[in-house]
Amino acid sequence: MAFASPMSPSLHSLSSNPFSKHNKILTLNKIQPFSLSHRHALFRIDWGSLWQGQASLNYSLYSSITSADFLLDEALEKIQLPKGDTWSIHKFGGTCMGASERIRNVADIIAKDESERKLVVVSAMSKVTDMMYGLIERAQSRDNSYATALDAVMEKHKFTALDLLEGDDLANFLSLLNQDISNLKAMLRAIYIAGHATESFSDFVVGHGELWSAQLLSAVVRKNGLDCTCMDTREVLVVNPTSSNQVDPDYLESGRRLEKWYSHNPFNTIVATGFIASTPQNIPTTLKRDGSDFSAAIMGALFRARQVTIWTDVDGVYSADPRKVSDAVILRELSYQEAWEMSYFGANVLHPRTIIPVMVYDIPIVIRNIFNLSACGTMICRPAGSENENGQRMESPVKGFATIDNLALVNVEGTGMAGVPGTASDIFGAVRDSGANVVMISQASSEHSVCFAVPEKEVNAVAAALESRFRQALDAGRLSQIAVIPNCSILAAVGQKMASTPGVSATLFNALAKANINVRAIAQGCSEYNITVVIKREDCTRALQAVHSRFYLSRTTIAMGVIGPGLIGGTLLDQLRDQAAVLKEKFNIDLRVMGITGSRTMLLSDAGIDLSIWRDLLRDKGEKADMHKFVQRVHGNHSIPNTVLVDCTADSYVASHYHDWLRRGLHVITPNKKANSGPLEQYLKLRALQRQSYTHYFYEATVGAGLPIISTLQGLLETGDKILRIEGIFSGTLSYIFNNFVGTQTFSEAVKEAKEAGYTEPDPRDDLSGTDVARKVIILARESGLKLELSDIPVQSLVPEPLKASGSAEEFMLQLPRYDQNMAERRQEAEAAGEVSISSPHY
Ligand code: ADP
Ligand code: ASP
Ligand code: MG
């Protein structure tokens, strides 16, 4: 039959067609497919019922039905919708429909698709739906600026049309746009007067964005030479509202209406409005925010299409929101369940309800980037085999991570809950009555508490509903509290293979613990497609980055603050500068020095300091040192999961902060001996804290410089060895001096030589006093389990008593030869006692 291929070029010459009367309609469709006037001719809007938000918005046929028309209709309905693989569905989001240039681009992509038949679902131009909701908001709150805001909406579309269309197409579009705008003006005026709009009234208003964008796009597609018509999906999609501000498609009725619609519009290219639909009573409604993805999926199912392609502004579904995790990777393939979980948990690249309609018929969804056609996108489909040739698993068991912000936790607690049937039903009954949506639930098996997350804006109503429902139980003490914990976020890990891989949650929680993130509640469905944790909102991005880098082996980013850029600190910074590339490439560590502080000046940077010029920067751009501010900025002004402070001073004031830093989750690395050799009680507190938490406190360089002495000792102790004795030369400086204090060499000459060679501290008394050695000894002793104070270590100082407190280092060096005689005697005594042996130095 001639209609089997309605897109054939013979569309104009249907004279051989037995239903020649229909020629007129088809030709009309071709010249002016789905014009708004056409739409208005079909619909008569019963404003009264729209206003009340009730049934019976009548879309009735205006035209008088003659018997000939009737016959024609009957005949037309015999044109069957050719369902199946010949159809491909495309959906272009608001991001793709931002301006005239983009709309042209969309039309090009449609032209390039070689499918025999295609249905294109479009969103409103970007921002338009927000603008439309804004109009209603303003009118409802009796703000008469809605009129200028409506003008802006009109201007946006007019401007775009002027750029895209010309001649009759342009004139038609503009006249219809004007007509719609004047209708909207009247409606908004009515809302303004009433100070209220029903949901159906709002839905009717906001849906215009999609009507206009579909109009514009189909006109451009036709201008490009492709026969195409426009579908007002309110004529086809029938949905039932649910109590939870969602809608459920009525596939049977929608299918029937589609058949009918198609029989009147048998085109091979159809541009359809996303987002909008009708109730069974023909009241215009919407599929709710971001619903165009859902529209496309429903269409996919109704047409039994080969594929649904969702075009947007990113290369596909990423392993985490690319705005929050710069290392996120594109997921080539996702199962339907994984995509559903990801989108449910906030990956707004796809509306969560998009999956179910297509999953039923195994129709794949492909997410593609309209701005990067070379990227192949993400395919969402039934999972194929998961193993590579060697039988090894190819990918991480966790596919992706997503977060939902602005949640509050509600905790209902009490001993009267355990073993009482119906408590959960009462709780969630009350929550339902408050109209809130429960995002996750967790109940420990002790049944003493039930906790659940709801959107923050709904939590007050939930708490009030619970308090009123459980008043009696609260008064009687059967319930101890209904607590609200605000400012929470959910982090969900999603992946089908989590089900068969042990240790996934251990790794997840370990990564969170290492980033010092406190988990407030946990839920894991037994399908094991996702693990959900509730955390503080302020930790959310850091948590996302920490877990993502753990599973995807992306770079471990570390924020570092260096305290004391002297000889040691400065050398460290230079080493970091030289090692940065190796750390990045070989070890996947991205180390960023966010701050350097001396005792007087500090340098801060939120992006990381350029280490090739850190000295110049510190000198020229440094600000007044302030330890509190320093730590605040190094730790707080970024979303890097790990922060480490390196104390390169020998200062006990700096060391006195370690406990607080570790408690706050900052890792500490130091060669400074003051903390570990200070008062025993403080040392024990520090070690206890370090054992409890996942924060690192590394102090290997406090003894033996670069040699792994402490870690060796720890290793021996952990494996059951007992330390009997530790022998050593604990000071390279003293060793050097003693080795040279032989023959005719005087003591002061030996010290002078050591100082000139740069082996001593600037003031050699720091070495000669023996305190430094005693500190090293006490650190090793404590490490071995001895509970000693520094004063328990006997030390013979080599600083002559009168020179202990007086003068500068230079003065000390000048005075020292006066004691050479005395030192020579002490050496002889030691020699006589057999306490001197000449050996090669050990540093
Ligand atoms: P459209 O207007 O095309 O429907 P949306 O703004 O609704 O586009 O969705 C696309 C956006 O979703 C992207 O720009 C991206 O920032 C965001 N997004 C959030 N999570 C993810 C994720 N895991 N993968 C990809 N995009 C994501
Ligand atoms: N335009 C609608 C919205 O912004 C639907 C969509 O774009 O998916 O919510
Ligand atoms: Mg979207």
UniProtKB/TrEMBL annotation:
The keyword Metal-binding applies. Its cofactor is a metal cation. Pathway: Amino-acid biosynthesis; L-threonine biosynthesis; L-threonine from L-aspartate: step 3/5; Amino-acid biosynthesis; L-methionine biosynthesis via de novo pathway; L-homoserine from L-aspartate: step 3/3; Amino-acid biosynthesis; L-lysine biosynthesis via DAP pathway; (S)-tetrahydrodipicolinate from L-aspartate: step 1/4; Amino-acid biosynthesis; L-methionine biosynthesis via de novo pathway; L-homoserine from L-aspartate: step 1/3. Residues 412-481, 493-570 form the ACT domain. GO terms for cellular component: chloroplast. Residues 823-843 are annotated as: Disordered. It comes from the Eukaryota. Keywords: Amino-acid biosynthesis, ATP-binding, Chloroplast, Kinase, Lysine biosynthesis, Metal-binding, Methionine biosynthesis, Multifunctional enzyme, NAD, NADP, Nucleotide-binding, Oxidoreductase, Plastid, Repeat, Sodium, Threonine biosynthesis, Transferase, Transit peptide. GO terms for biological process: homoserine biosynthetic process; lysine biosynthetic process; methionine biosynthetic process; threonine biosynthetic process. In the C-terminal section; belongs to the homoserine dehydrogenase family. PANTHER family: HOMOSERINE DEHYDROGENASE, PTHR43070. This is Bifunctional aspartokinase homoserine dehydrogenase, chloroplastic-like. It comes from Olea europaea subsp. europaea.
